[in-house]
Write a structure and sequence with these properties.
alpha/beta, single chain, 15 strands, 3-stranded antiparallel sheet, 8-stranded parallel barrel
Length: 367
């Protein structure tokens, strides 16, 4: 790919100026790398400016027979990446009993994404939220009644350490640097919203992720776009990103990220395309027009973004979660996403696809 590149267009958003990325890739790097260029507020993929437009899909909420179909539809919408969680309790239902085949074959799912040319933003927890039973933490952890989850409680850390020692080595060959699709890995999940605020716990996770995945992988955190959340959710050495939904003040949201990360790419790790449902309440919806206009603003700022969810799927069996005070989620996790629970294309799908195409044409981008 030796086509010439002209000067990248600059897009102004609030107080900052950003380069939206390269027009064309100049060369194929001999070594695959994915890094942050702090001096220019952007990602570098194989040494070239890059940003992602991603969509969330949960393999554990979709029968494996349909994985490729859903991924292909995401690719055809113009996405260049996907984002997924790994629920611990889905893979270790009992201590030492591991499930990684059939519907639990996360490696196969990630390989399918790779084959379709989709990059991967991985969120292995150990806590994931996701409106999933116990946020992905195994119920057997509660056999110790006094355990303090998501903290430096010795019994909790021992279980986490053992689990990560099983999961992360399976994923290491799938890192981008190793020829796979995984470009970034999230540590914990919206930890700033949890009461423990235990920085030693985050440091323990950081050390474990580095031990199993190496020093080259880009680790990040995600928290709500609120100063109070980032106070306990961010940690030096983990790139801090934020999440916010349609209709939000994106300048204010990214200003919040800038308080933790004065330099580096702007990232919305969860741009909400819809919202979750609760038993006994009407199905939640978010207007397509609001989703489309906010997405355009985010992309026009030169930010990277993940659409949560792009397809919601189904809470099979008893995997649905619940909020506090007690509000259980139903079996459906449709989320009013661009792809319906059944995988059908919706009005929102075509609107999102059009926005991605419009931004790419206006700023001459190739995602």
């Amino acid at each position: 790919e030796s086509l010439a590149q002209s000067e990248p267009l600059l897009v102004k958003c609030a107080r900052w100026t950003f380069s939206p990325g390269p027009i064309l890739v100049l060369y194929k790097a001999s070594q695959r790398t994915f890094q942050i260029d702090y001096s220019h507020n952007r990602f570098l993929k194989d040494g070239q400016p890059f940003r992602y437009i991603s969509g969330s899909i949960h393999y554990f909420r979709i029968p494996s027979f349909y994985w490729k179909d859903r991924l292909l539809k995401m690719k055809m919408a113009g996405l260049n990446a996907i984002q997924t969680y790994v629920p611990w309790n889905f893979h270790e239902p009992q201590p030492g009993q591991y499930l990684f085949s059939g519907e639990h074959n996360v490696e196969h799912f990630l390989q399918l994404a790779h084959e379709l040319g989709l990059l991967v933003i991985l969120r292995p927890g150990p806590y994931i939220c996701a409106e999933w039973d116990m946020g992905g933490l195994p119920a057997w952890l509660l056999q110790k009644e006094s355990i303090i989850l998501r903290s430096t409680d010795p019994d909790y850390l021992a279980a986490v350490d053992k689990w990560l020692g099983v999961l992360l080595p399976k994923l290491k060959p799938l890192l981008y640097q190793n020829g796979g699709p995984i470009i970034t890995v999230q540590v914990e999940n919206e930890y700033g919203g949890y009461f423990t605020c235990d920085f030693d716990y985050l440091r323990f996770l950081q050390k474990s992720f580095r031990h199993h995945l190496g020093d080259d992988v880009l680790l990040f955190t995600t928290d709500g776009a609120c100063k109070e959340f980032l106070k306990c959710g961010a940690l030096q050495g983990l790139y801090a990103t934020v999440d916010f939904g349609a209709g939000s003040n994106i300048t204010a949201a990214f200003l919040t990220q800038r308080q933790s990360e004065p330099q580096g790419p702007l990232v919305n790790s969860e741009f909400y395309t819809g919202w979750l449902d609760h038993w006994g309440q009407p199905h939640s919806t978010v207007k397509t027009e609001v989703v489309a206009s906010t997405l355009y603003e985010i992309l026009a700022c030169g930010a990277s973004v993940n659409l949560y969810m792009f397809i919601g799927g189904t809470n099979f069996a008893y995997w649905n979660g619940a909020n506090t005070p007690y509000q259980p989620q139903p079996t459906s996790y449709d989320y009013d996403a661009p792809l319906s629970e059944a995988g059908d294309l919706t009005k929102k799908y075509f609107a999102v696809r059009d926005i991605i195409g419009k931004v790419g044409a206006v700023y001459r981008l190739r995602w």
